[in-house]
């Protein structure tokens, strides 16, 4: 990274990523669905970011990101399938799995791991706050919009990784 932090193309791409993450969070919060088009935009924009950021070795960088996307999406899909088999109900939607794959074009392994952990902890905190606000017991069968906390976590971890954390 040259010059000031988040100037030029990097700043524009980061702002576009933030807008996409907000759109995903709102969509998932409202309808418990992450539109495929938004996940595709995240992945596509991530490829653009790789091409601009790593122009000297963009082929290798895209291969690494693609492999990361396949592995993380595969792992989360396997976790979702296992949960469904063991519990008899869905615990993680395919939109969330696809979002993790799309995030892999933006985040390295470390940041990707942090984004999933941050989202999980944020989701637990959200469930706790919702329980306190309602005054009722938390329904263990209630659906929670994981994408609503995962999407902002992706952007925050991208931002932190670019700032050197």
Overview of the structural elements:
The protein has 165 residues and is mainly α. The chain has one domain. It is built from six helices and no strands. The protein starts with 7 loop residues before the first helix and ends with a helix. The model has no long low-confidence stretch (mean pLDDT 93).
Short description:
This protein has 165 residues and is an all-alpha fold. It has helices at residues 8-31, 36-53, 58-87, 94-103, 109-134, 146-162. The mean pLDDT is 93.
Taken from the alpha-carbon principal axes, the silhouette is globular
Q: Give the amount of beta strand, in percent.
A: under 5%
Find the structural class using helix and strand composition: mainly alpha
Q: Name the helix and strand elements from N-terminus to C-terminus, one letter apiece.
A: HHHHHH
**Distance from first to last alpha carbon:** 14 Å
Q: Provide the helix percentage.
A: over 70%
Overall residue-averaged pLDDT value: 93
Summed up, the domain count is 1
Topology, number of strands = 0
Rg over alpha carbons: 17 Å
What's the number of helices?
6
The major pleated sheet works out as:
none
Low-confidence stretches: none
List keywords for this structure.
165 residues; mainly alpha
Please write out the topology.
Blueprint lengths: L7 H24 L4 H18 L4 H30 L6 H10 L5 H26 L11 H17 L3
Helix pairs in contact: 1-2, 1-6, 2-3, 2-4, 3-4, 4-6, 5-6
């Amino acid at each position: 990274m040259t010059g000031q932090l988040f100037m030029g193309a990097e700043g524009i791409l980061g702002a576009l990523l933030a807008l996409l993450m907000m759109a995903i969070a709102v969509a998932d919060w409202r309808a418990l669905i992450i539109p495929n088009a938004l996940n595709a935009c995240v992945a596509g924009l991530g490829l653009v970011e790789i091409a601009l950021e790593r122009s000297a070795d963009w082929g290798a960088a895209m291969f690494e990101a693609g492999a990361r996307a396949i592995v993380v999406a595969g792992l989360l899909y396997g976790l979702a399938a296992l949960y469904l088999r063991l519990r008899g109900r869905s615990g993680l939607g395919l939109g969330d799995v696809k979002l993790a794959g799309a995030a892999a074009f933006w985040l390295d392994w470390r940041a990707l791991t942090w984004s999933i952990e941050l989202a999980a902890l944020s989701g637990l905190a959200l469930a706790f706050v919702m329980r306190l606000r309602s005054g009722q017991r938390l329904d263990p069968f209630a659906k929670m919009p994981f994408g609503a906390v995962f999407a902002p976590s992706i952007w925050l971890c991208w931002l932190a990784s670019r700032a050197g954390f």
